[in-house]
Amino acid sequence: MLYAGTMSKVRTTLVLDEAVFAKLRQRSPDNLSKLANEILVEGLFKKKKSLAGFLAGRISTKDIVEEEIHEDLYR
């Protein structure tokens, strides 16, 4: 797993609700710190989708008519 910035570790304490703790224990009974780090990194540093990827297959370059869009700029 890649971290943004340095790879140093910091020790901290998380205060969890019992329901959250139970759910974490279900997913990883062995190493809660590793699982909590994975969840936090995924939530905080997830890759953003580009607009091109979002619109892929939804629009076509045939839909764009450059002359009509910029016609008033050349008058």
Strand content: under 5%
Count of helical stretches:
4
Radius of gyration: 23 Å
Domains (count): 1
Condensed summary:
By secondary structure, the protein is mainly α. Helices cover about 45% and strands about 0% of the residues.
Features:
75 residues; mainly alpha; 4 helices
Could you explain the architecture of this structure?
The relative contact order is 0.09. It contains 4 helices and no strands. The protein has one domain (18-74). The mean pLDDT is 76. It has helices at 18-27, 32-45, 51-55, 66-70. It is elongated. The chain is mostly helical and 75 residues long. The termini are far apart.
Blueprint of the fold:
Layout: H1 18-27, H2 32-45, H3 51-55, H4 66-70
